[in-house]
Sequence to fold (228 residues):
Amino acid sequence: MIGVLANFIGVTLGSSVGLLAKKAIPESWNSVIMRGIGLCTLYIGFSGALVGENTIILILSMIAGVLIGEGFRIEERFNGFAHRVEDRFGGSNFAGGFITASLLMCVGAMSIVGSLDAGIKGDNTLLLTKTVMDTISAVVLSASLGIGVMFAGITVLVLEGGIVLIAEAVSPYLTDWVVNEMSCVGSVLIVAIGINLITDAKLKILNYMPAMFLPLAFCPLFEALGLA
Fold:
């Protein structure tokens, strides 16, 4: 859990620096900064998506994942939670900063694979590398989106910590193929985050989140059917 705790601390410290720097950045620059982050996010997502080996598994995971997400209203529930916290602690853009930062820092290959490595091998290298990246991202995001970004550290702690804790139990199913497909799905979701940052698409990305874990089921199924 060392890597997870370091990631949480990095987000908190980075957000603190960003909030202090916010006063020095003209408000008119915020949209320009966010579009720049969006373009970088698209690059990260497209690069990570290339590790996928089977497009059909990606498609099935996305379709089944969004059906699960819509059924459980994940986006709606998460937004409701964010707005309740906003009413108590934050400013007018608290929910936007919290949700955007949570998605950027918790979705994708480094978050998934790094947590799996920490849980199965005790190797925190990827999570510590991600900590450096997330700390820098937190500075930029909090300067533009406010204190909600700091609370995203809690999302990082819960999600990555949860993956680390359950990694040992599912380790027999975590072949390189499964991990690659999970990373591919997560990277496609990162592309969707980038689209949201630079356009008004407003894709309900949280409702697609279950898709990241569905290769755990689809990959063994494809192997059993001789489709791998």
User: Anything to note?
Assistant: The longest helix spans residues 148-170.
